[in-house]
Amino acid sequence: MESTGEGERPKVAVLGATGQLGARVVAHLRDRGVDVVEVSRGQGTDVYSGEGLDAAFDGVSTVVDCLHLATLSRKHAVDFFSTTARNVLAAARRTAVSRIVCVTIINAREPEVHRWMGYYAGKAAQEQTYRAGPIPVTVVASAQWYELAETLLSQIRIGPLSAVPGMRSRPLAAEEAAAFVVDRALEPGDVATLDHEAVIAGPEVRDMAELARAIAERRGGRRKVLRVSVSFTALGNGGLLPRGNCTTAPTRFEDWLRVTS
């Protein structure tokens, strides 16, 4: 990885630095002695408008995009992720950033997958925008996180029930996804100059609705989970599973649940 001088620490900007993944990426980078620039609205930078990006990227060699948008709307997701990616590329070019690491979802760019999820359509647009840009990009494709199963409990509620789609995935802990992202961000310069993709997934194929049910029971609440079958879509019939080579995170769901409860 490039640095600004002999013996200097690498300088990495993390977009979405206060989010579920971004905060973990920041912590891992700092544990490795990296100079981190936290990019978020709370730090005075608006990636959607582009305000403050040039200042945030000053002296930065690598940008890690962990941006997230809480929406199920295809229109809003596509607009947000494509706009922010264009702004990041423009600012990166002006400030001589040498590399971008974009975190996405396994197979989100596949039409049979993102046609069912507006958020995934946004991630597909993000990846397409970065790949078409002038800055070398590493795409880190992650399976769903165990933490997503908990989020799904609050997205669609029907009285005391949470409706959760029975998506088939190889989920993993967000902490392990963050460590993998940092590994990619700190790869040697000769690797970083090449556009490539890295994939990480968990150790087992699981049903996200069943994981949500187990979390609800473990937390001791009264909310019940209504599993919504999506077996007729790519979300339920294997479209979210990795294809080809991927890194396997070791932590099983039950072990994660036991230590996080």
Describe the structure.
The protein has 261 residues and is of the alpha/beta class. It has a single domain (11-260), classed as NAD(P)-binding Rossmann-like Domain (Rossmann fold, 3-Layer(aba) Sandwich). 37% of the residues lie in helices and 20% in strands. Strands 2-1-3-4-5-9-12 form a 7-stranded parallel β-sheet, sandwiched between helices. β6 (157-158) and β7 (161-165) form a beta hairpin. α6 packs across α9. The N and C termini lie far apart (38 Å).
Q: Can you identify the CATH class?
A: Alpha Beta
| Biggest sheet strand line-up | 2-1-3-4-5-9-12
The overall number of domains is 1
| Biggest sheet features | 7 strands, parallel
The beta-strand count equals 12
Using the CA coordinates, give the radius of gyration: 18 Å
Count up the helices. Answer: 10
- In the predicted model, the low-confidence regions spanning at least 5 consecutive residues are 1-6
Instruction: Estimate the global geometry from the Cα principal axes.
Output: globular
Question: What descriptive keywords fit this protein?
Answer:
single chain; disordered N terminus; 3-stranded mixed beta sheet; 261 residues; alpha/beta; 7-stranded parallel beta sheet; 37% helix; Rossmann fold; 10 helices; globular
Topology:
Elements: E1 11-15, H1 22-31, E2 35-39, H2 53-56, E3 62-65, H3 74-95, E4 99-105, H4 111-114, H5 118-131, E5 137-142, H6 146-152, E6 157-158, E7 161-165, E8 168-169, H7 174-185, H8 189-192, E9 196-201, E10 206-207, H9 208-219, E11 224-228, E12 247-248, H10 253-260
Parallel strand pairs: 1-2, 1-3, 3-4, 4-5, 5-9, 7-11, 9-12
Antiparallel strand pairs: 6-7, 8-10
